[in-house]
């Protein structure tokens, strides 16, 4: 049974404007915040999910910049723990969470098949790809980049996990 959900932030909890897709380059802050399309009803879903699951956030980028996004979007209260990956990849953070939960109890939600989806697949964690932003067009290069499930938005996530077992399917070789 899934007990905890691990979220990516950029292009997962909200969609970035195309010119800000390179998350390692912060750009003009005021302009950035004007361009983000935050969907309040989707963010509300996080509150619902928080009643049923433990939520974690792992986001990649410049630390001060990611912290500012988390604060401005008021995301902090939803998550038990927030990790900011400044470029070494998400695997070490998944491994930290795996000290608290079994892999069968975890699912990762993110847009990047070369980051969170690949890393989580390699660790046997259930993966849910959200089709948002520029990376929604990427095509998996290897089986590790293929998500177990695909959704279009956070509402799709609610539908997917409500009353369903979303264990990682056993891969037949
Ligand atoms: Mg992302």
- Enumerate how many helices there are, as a single number: 6
For the sheet with most strands, the description reads:
6 strands, parallel
Q: Can you list the ligands bound to this structure?
A: magnesium ion
Structural class by secondary-structure content = alpha/beta
Helix residue percentage: 25-40%
Shape: globular
Number of strands: 6
Give me the Rg, rounded.
15 Å
* Alpha-carbon distance between the two ends: 24 Å
pLDDT average, as an integer? 90
Query: Strand sequence of the main sheet, in spatial order?
Result: 3-2-1-4-5-6
Poorly predicted residue ranges: none
Q: What percentage of amino acids are in beta strands? A: 15-25%
Q: Please provide the ordered H/E string of secondary-structure elements.
A: EHHEHEHEHEEH
SSE topology sketch:
Elements lengths: L3 E4 L21 H7 L4 H13 L1 E7 L2 H10 L8 E5 L5 H7 L8 E5 L2 H10 L3 E5 L18 E3 L2 H8 L12
Parallel strand pairs: 1-2, 1-4, 2-3, 4-5, 5-6
Bound molecules: magnesium ion.
């Amino acid at each position: 049974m899934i007990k905890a959900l691990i979220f990516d932030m950029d292009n997962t909890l909200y969609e970035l404007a195309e010119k800000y897709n390179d998350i390692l380059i912060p750009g003009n802050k005021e302009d950035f915040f004007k361009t983000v399309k935050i969907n309040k009803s989707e963010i509300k879903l996080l509150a619902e999910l928080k009643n049923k699951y433990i939520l974690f956030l792992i986001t990649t980028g410049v630390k001060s910049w990611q912290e500012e996004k988390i604060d401005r979007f008021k995301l902090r209260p939803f998550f038990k723990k927030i990790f900011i990956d400044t470029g070494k990849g998400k695997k070490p953070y998944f491994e930290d969470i795996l000290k608290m939960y079994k892999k069968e109890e975890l699912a990762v939600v993110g847009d990047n098949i070369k980051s969170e989806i690949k890393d989580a697949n390699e660790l046997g964690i259930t993966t849910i790809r959200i089709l948002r932003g520029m990376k929604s067009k990427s095509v998996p290069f290897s089986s590790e980049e293929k998500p177990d499930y695909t959704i279009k938005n956070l509402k799709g996530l609610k539908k997917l996990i409500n009353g369903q077992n979303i264990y990682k399917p056993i891969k037949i070789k």
